[in-house]
Design goal:
By secondary structure, the protein is mainly alpha-helical. The protein is built from 16 helices and eight strands.
Length: 429
């Protein structure tokens, strides 16, 4: 009889090392919402500025109903305050931007109509009638955009003493925010966060394009959650609007739950099971378990914001409007060559070799390419300040180097931006 080499070893079951693949049940969510730790990410708090009043009220009601199970990582509040005014500007400018774009579309439609009318010799009175109808339609839409924006935002300002979102959060978060890491612990966590970014270990590596130690922010949030969960020895529900792969286990393009590495790390550190929900999912689950009624349209509005953020994520936080703004500002400052290199790289799967850059820009081979991306990064930061792109927007143009070389071998356009750049190129043809 063969000897059992596993004798004395710990027996394992189907889910012992694969807890991340267990589908949560209603009882699981009841347990974590009533006896566990519920930690909202910074984006959950910031998105309160993007919701309608009804959705905002319902989400705050859900958070408040958690009582002492609600716990906000200190780093999440660091991110909240760092990005609050930018989020406000973004929310305000979205209405202005949409209204301006509508006016631009109206002018373009009018030009198209007049050109067509001239070509077919349409009678002048008929042309005027059609132009009037066109102007009326665009005018009505633009007025509605302006009215909705003014009505929704008239009570929300940068002044924290009059901001209703800040007032409600202040009441909800009394005694429910974690302490910051000590200096040595913070330094160690930042180093670990940057190491994970470099090695593509979750969480946070999808933020590797952020300047400085900003790429370590997600890990700081995670480390604080691990520490608190170990102290309480409980399950954790992390609520986040971040849908990137460094947090979620993705199957066929869908988020199925937390990354297995994160589930295992929480267990190893002394916590319980790890659950993750988007704000929409959390609101639906919390309303059922905490037994409160949702106002009409709340779930749909939160879903609207999540859909927009998912679309933005597909292009690294950039929109056609923002990218056109970047190109326009670069050209206005005499950097048309940067725009040409970005377009060239995007047309070639995101890469422009050094020779192509020298040819496009007409540079002598002795000229260095050091600082070539500086104007692009500087104007991108200006667009961030204006609220046209989020803080998390990917870097448009990055220098590439061969191992051991000090001269750039070429430049790359972020893979998420390639389709958007090519789409603009097609429109310009």
């Amino acid at each position: 009889m063969a000897k059992d080499t596993t004798a004395g070893a710990e027996s394992r079951g189907l889910f012992d090392d694969f807890g991340a693949f267990r589908t949560p049940t209603a009882d699981d969510f009841t347990t974590v919402l009533t006896r566990g730790l519920v930690a909202p990410d910074a984006n959950v708090l910031l998105n309160l500025y993007r919701y309608t009043e009804q959705a905002r009220g319902d989400l705050l009601r859900a958070l408040g109903g958690l009582e002492n199970r609600l716990w906000v990582p200190h780093q999440a509040l660091v991110e909240f305050w760092r990005n609050r005014e930018g989020t406000l500007s973004d929310a305000r400018s979205s209405g202005t931007q949409a209204a301006d774009e509508m006016a631009s579309h109206a002018a373009q439609a009018d030009r198209t109509l007049r050109t067509w009318a001239n070509r077919v010799a349409l009678p002048e009175d008929e042309t005027d009638r059609l132009r009037g109808q066109l102007s009326e339609v665009f005018g009505t839409v633009r007025e509605t955009i302006v009215k909705v924006g003014q009505g929704e935002w008239q009570g929300i300002t940068q002044d924290t003493s009059t901001d209703p979102v800040v007032a409600k959060l202040e009441r909800a978060l009394v005694g429910r925010v974690g302490a910051p890491l000590g200096p040595e612990a913070h330094k160690k966590a930042v180093a670990e966060g940057m190491r994970r970014v470099e090695k593509r270990e979750p969480p946070g590596y999808m933020d590797r394009t952020k300047d400085g130690v900003g790429a370590a922010a997600d890990y700081l949030v995670w480390e604080q959650i691990l520490t608190e969960a170990a102290r309480r020895r409980c399950d954790v529900l992390f609520v986040t609007a971040d849908v990137k792969e460094d947090w979620w286990r993705k199957e066929q393009g869908f988020n199925r739950g937390p990354r297995p590495e994160l589930t295992e790390e929480l267990r190893t550190r002394g916590g319980g099971r790890l659950f993750m929900l988007t704000p929409k999912q959390f609101l639906e689950v919390a309303a059922s378990i905490l037994e409160f009624s949702l106002q009409v349209g709340s779930v749909e509005d939160i879903e609207r914001v999540e859909r927009i953020e998912t679309d933005d994520e597909q292009h690294g936080g950039w929109t056609t409007f923002a990218l056109e703004g970047l190109f326009g500002l670069l050209a206005g400052e005499g950097y048309e060559d940067r725009v040409a290199v970005i377009r060239h790289a995007a047309a070639r799967d995101g890469v422009a070799d050094a020779k192509s850059v020298y040819d496009i820009c007409g540079y002598h081979q002795d000229r260095t390419l050091k600082g070539f991306t500086t104007p692009v990064n500087r104007i991108t930061n200006r667009l961030r300040e204006l609220g046209l792109v989020p803080e998390s927007a990917v870097r448009v143009l990055t220098a590439e180097y061969e191992p051991g070389q000090s001269r750039a071998s070429g430049f790359s356009v972020h893979r998420l931006l390639v389709p958007l750049v090519n789409e603009l190129a097609d429109e310009d043809e």
